[in-house]
Amino acid sequence: MSNDLHFKTASELAAMIRAKQVGCVELLEHFLKRCDAHNKALNAIVVFRREEALARARAADEALAKGESWGPLHGVPMTIKESYDWEGTPTTWGVPHLKDNVAETNSVVVDRMLASGVILFGKTNVPLLLSDWETFNEIYGTTNNPWDLGRVPGGSSGGSAAALAAGLTAIDAGSDIGASIRNPAHYCGVYGHKPTWGLVPLRGQAMPGVLSHADISVVGPLARGAEDIAVALQAMAGPDVLEADGYRLDLIQPEKMNLSDFRIAVMVTDDVCPVDSEYADRIQAVAEACAKAGATVDDRARPEIDMAKSHDIYIQLLRGVTTARLPETVFLENREKVAALSDDDASYEARNLRASVQYHRDWMASNELRTHMRWAWRTFFQQWDVLLCPTAASAAFPHDQQGERWDRTISVNGAPQSAVDQLFWAGLTGVALLPSTVAPAGLTRSGLPTGVQIVGPSMHDLRTIDFARLLADEVGGFQPPPDYI
User: Fold this and answer.
1) How far apart are CA 435 and CA 453, in angstroms?
2) DSSP helix/strand/coil, 308
3) Cβ(122)–Cβ(47) below 8 Å
4) For residue 56, which of 46, 70, 45, 37 has the smallest C-alpha distance?
5) Predicted confidence band at 37 (pLDDT cuts at 50, 70, 90)?
6) What digits encode the pLDDT tens for the residues 63-94?
7) CA–CA gap between residue 477 and residue 226 (Å, rounded)
8) Which residues have a Cβ under 8 Å from the Cβ of 245 and sit 6 or more positions away?
9) 5-255 is classed in which CATH architecture?
10) The dihedral of CA 218, 224, 225, 231: what is its sign?
11) Which of 172, 281, 367, 421 measures 20 to 30 Å from 58, CA to CA?
12) Quick one: angle between helices 158-165 and 24-42, nearest 10?
């Protein structure tokens, strides 16, 4: 058996299984041995269901022997973010009082991925309430980046990205409201996709008892290859039961076969959130590679949007969602804190507090402004096929778990920058509900992985994913961390 099975894409592994070059049990055992060797230091996978997975793998081998196929990912080992309901496993979101909350049913995504044929064997770590670009909590502890154990793997799907980068799993699924799929993919050097809002049902990836689809929030795949992202997205996507009687999904297939066919806009940095030069250089290198391949590339093209205002609206809408998860006692405390704020306090904490107690009319006003921006993006994408931009302000930064997130800083061009400023790059597409794919963009001068964010028009998810596939031929795709080869 090849000793690099753990770094093959899920699609490659599925093809090997179909060709009977490797068995489903054999492959699962290979990944479990990888976990035994490396997971302790990484703490990426925090829940295992080995026996159940092995039983399913045996059944997958038996089915294949009879000529049966369960789907495009038949027999491929998979992990999933801890926040998804998977029957018989804890769904805690890192919240201590939920440590004994065991799911009684599967989330929509779990059911759909199982229907695609995967062998689900574990759950990956998350930060408290999925609300940090660090991945740590009191229940499971801290997850480390396989490129440098002293650095963050990102969050909140940090365990997912770390497990993929280290070759502990073949494919994973995360969630994203503030770059929670995208920044881990960038920090760990893997692929991640934030779908168009509403494309994939969230049911079963929520706090206990929650059924409604939260604003901005999405769920989607992470992998080591763009082709895996396409397969997984098409397995996950489509209306939930409430809409399925009347709606059918018909995703637009990629229309361009070569990079030279693309019209590409590029944002390397922005005044709202400056980008560290080591990372910005990689975005620029991607743009230059596209131009060399014959694409039309423009670094000045922008939608007719005030970027600072876009970020303000994003924060307003984002915090309206995330603070709604907090207990009523915290809401009442926040209302008192808002009353004590000075009118000219525009700090992140002040904006956060005001958004946490906003009236519905305030949300409606922000949503109206957001909708105008969505139309501006639509006009923009009638001229440009994709926008390339950063995912964050820097490559993976050292662990820092002290105090509140908005009090922490990261180093950008040698100077401290508020860690929450980089939410600008999350909100650029999040507020407009657009799809974006993060693809590996090569290593910084310091040897850390980076990812380029590929933004496309609403419902053109397969365009950004296929662009990521084509891009790999020019700048390289996934690279294994040296200590895990």
Assistant:
1) 10
2) helix
3) yes
4) 70
5) very high
6) 999 999 999 999 999 999 999 999 999 999 99
7) 9
8) none
9) Alpha-Beta Complex (3.90)
10) negative
11) 172
12) 120
Residue with tokens 């294994």: 480
3-state secondary structure of 333: helix
DSSP characters over 51-93 = HHHHHHHHHHHHHHHTT----TTTT-EEEEETTS--TTSB--T
Distances from the Cα of 101 to the Cαs of 95, 109, 128, 408, in angstroms? 10, 19, 15, 31
Question: DSSP letter at 273?
Answer: B
CA 257, CA 109: separation in Å to the nearest integer?
30
Two tokens, residue 435: 């799809």
Q: What is the DSSP letter of 405?
A: G
Q: Does 3 have pLDDT greater than 80?
A: no
Going 5 to 8 to 14 to 15, the CA torsion angle's sign is: negative
Answer for the pair 155, 406: CB distance below 8 angstroms, yes or no. no
- Residue positions counted in the chain: 485
CA quadruple 152, 154, 157, 163: dihedral positive or negative?
Answer: negative
CB 226 within 8 A of CB 191: yes
Give me 168's structure tokens. 């502990």
129 conformational bin, left if phi > 0, alpha if psi -120 to 50, beta if neither = left
Q: Where in the chain is the domain with CATH 3.90.1300.10?
A: 5-255
Give the DSSP letter of residue 195. P
**How far, in Å, CA of 79 to CA of 178, rounded?**
21
Say how far apart CA 36 and CA 29 lie, in whole Å.
10
Sign for the CA dihedral angle at 451, 453, 459, 461 comes to: negative
Q: Are 438 and 358 in contact (CB under 8 A)?
A: no
User: Taking the complete model, does pTM exceed 0.70, yes or no?
Assistant: yes
Q: Which two tokens stand for residue 42?
A: 């990484």
- pLDDT tens sequence across 296-310: 999 999 999 999 999
Count CB neighbours of 475 within 10 A. 18
